[in-house]
Q: What sequence folds into this?
């Protein structure tokens, strides 16, 4: 399933991020194609901006991606809600669900296949990840005229930058999303930024497979410049 309902605030003013163009097609179209190019993928569910479902159906159609193997549902106010709404449209007999950000248009199919293979081999939750180039520091709060103090520096060799698609046994992913919703309704809930984070929160093991530098997330304007360059190189 492809959460694509975000606004893309860090990318700057314009259309919702998933609908922004890269090499003549919306990011979402690239992301759906990347998933659908895996032989392991039988159905793609897109969570579209709630006011843009018809537009997204039209876009997918105009890029040859409409049909019974692509469904579009309305997404939610948070990524977590969008994934939950998308999951509700995944048939119960589905064994494995991949969750893939529309904002990662250039993920190589090898990454998709590696995630699926690891779930098939028995891991209930799998994330693709790459080593970090930068040193990372934890900081405390700063303030006016008071720079943020460095608290500590985690050993970089133990850190990974996590990408998508993340892969799960469908039952497990549905279960942790249901638990998070119940906790949220009670005014709590885990503060996590990815689906694997929910699995970790509720105590199941997540494992890592190698990601790919071209699976980077288009977040800020420079990322779009990089994505155009990668695409141009692929097409050369
Ligand atoms: N997403 C979603 N529903 C939301 C928020 C995010 O489906 N309510 C999706 C985005 O469309 C994106 C993915 O989650 O494909 C990763 O999120 P992110 O990169 O943060 O995208 P945005 O939330 O759109 O960007 P920003 O945070 O800069 O506004
Ligand atoms: Mg966001």
A:
């Amino acid at each position: 399933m492809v959460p694509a309902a975000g606004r893309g605030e860090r990318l700057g003013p314009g259309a919702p991020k998933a609908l922004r163009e890269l090499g003549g097609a919306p990011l979402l179209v690239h992301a759906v194609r990347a998933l659908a190019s895996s032989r392991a993928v039988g159905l793609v569910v897109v969570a579209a901006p709630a006011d843009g479902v018809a537009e997204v159906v039209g876009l997918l159609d105009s890029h040859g991606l409409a049909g019974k193997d692509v469904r579009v549902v309305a997404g939610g106010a948070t990524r977590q809600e969008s994934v939950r709404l998308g999951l509700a449209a995944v048939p119960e007999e589905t064994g494995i669900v991949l969750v893939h950000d529309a904002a990662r248009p250039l993920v190589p199919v090898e990454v998709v296949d590696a995630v699926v293979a690891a779930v098939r081999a028995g891991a209930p939750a799998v994330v693709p990840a790459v080593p970090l180039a930068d040193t990372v520091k934890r900081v405390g709060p700063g303030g006016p005229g008071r720079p943020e103090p460095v608290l500590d520096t985690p050993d970089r060799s133990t850190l990974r930058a996590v990408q998508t698609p993340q892969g799960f046994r469908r039952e497990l992913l549905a279960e942790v999303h249901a638990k998070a919703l119940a906790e949220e309704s009670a005014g709590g809930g885990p503060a996590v930024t990815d689906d694997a984070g929910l699995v970790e929160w509720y105590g199941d093991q997540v494992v890592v497979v190698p990601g790919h530098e071209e699976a980077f997330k288009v977040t800020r304007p420079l990322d779009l410049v990089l994505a155009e360059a990668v695409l141009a190189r692929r097409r050369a």
Summary: The chain has a mean pLDDT of 96. The chain has one domain: 2-231. The pocket of cytidine-5'-triphosphate (ligand 1) is lined by residues 3-10, 17-18, 47, 75-79, 82, 101-103, 217, 219 (CB under 6 Å).
